[in-house]
Design goal:
By secondary structure, this protein is an all-alpha fold. It has one domain: CRISPR-associated protein Cse2 (Peroxidase, domain 1). The chain contains nine helices and no strands. Helix 1 runs parallel beside helix 4. It comes from Corynebacterium lujinxingii.
């Protein structure tokens, strides 16, 4: 059995597109990245049945490609294929008009959503996140995810699309689903608490030791 590549493949592909889009905007690579991201956004707006080539485009884009075990065999996309498709179309949505990176390995999706709550004046972030977590089918979950990604884009908040794709795959397996949702709930809480703790620490007066100058 070959080693699964979904996590690295999606993360590496997102990094490459992001680098070309942001750092090589005036080059052929930059123009190609803009075209690819626009096509991904268009695919996201249609169903697989309406755009039968959508999955093919994503699979050809992935570098490295998915392992043989992750590829589908029948008429429906495999869990890994669907996770890669949803992650990269969401990434394309996130990258629209971006001036800063939206993919980073330093922050998880749920933690970024928690951070979004601290930056937003709206009280709808937590209900949106909860609705996404409680969704019982893929279509509903992705609909809520697209709403959250739009809000993350508005606040220029980035997250790790590689680990996000791996989690999207795990959510398709009942035995793994609860573990992912538990971790997302924890990460969301950490995302809301850490900025507050940091601000509190910054607000505390500096204590100078009476022996500092002795």
């Amino acid at each position: 059995m070959t080693k699964p590549t979904l996590h690295f493949s999606v993360g590496n592909t997102a990094s490459s597109l992001q680098r070309s889009y942001l750092d090589r905007a005036e080059t052929a690579a930059g123009a190609d990245a803009r075209r690819v991201l626009a096509e991904l956004r268009q695919s996201a707006a249609r169903s697989f049945s309406a755009d039968p080539l959508a999955l093919q485009k994503v699979l050809l884009l992935l570098e490295p490609p998915l392992s043989d075990e992750e590829l589908g065999r029948g008429d429906d996309p495999s869990p890994s294929e669907l996770a890669a498709y949803n992650a990269l179309t969401l990434f394309a949505q996130h990258m629209q008009s971006a001036t800063k990176p939206v993919h980073t390995t330093e922050c998880s999706f749920a933690r970024a959503c928690g951070r979004l709550q601290t930056l937003s004046e709206s009280n709808s972030i937590k209900p949106r996140f909860d609705a996404m977590q409680s969704a019982r089918d893929e279509a509903s979950r992705v609909l809520h995810l697209r709403s959250l990604v739009t809000l993350l884009r508005s606040k220029e908040l980035a997250f790790d699309y590689g680990s996000f794709a791996r989690d999207l795959r795990s959510l398709q397996y009942p035995a793994r689903r609860e573990g992912v949702l538990l971790r997302w709930g924890r990460d969301y809480a950490v995302g809301t608490l850490r900025p507050k703790a940091q601000r509190a620490a910054e607000a505390e007066p500096e204590i100078t030791s009476p022996f500092a100058n002795s």
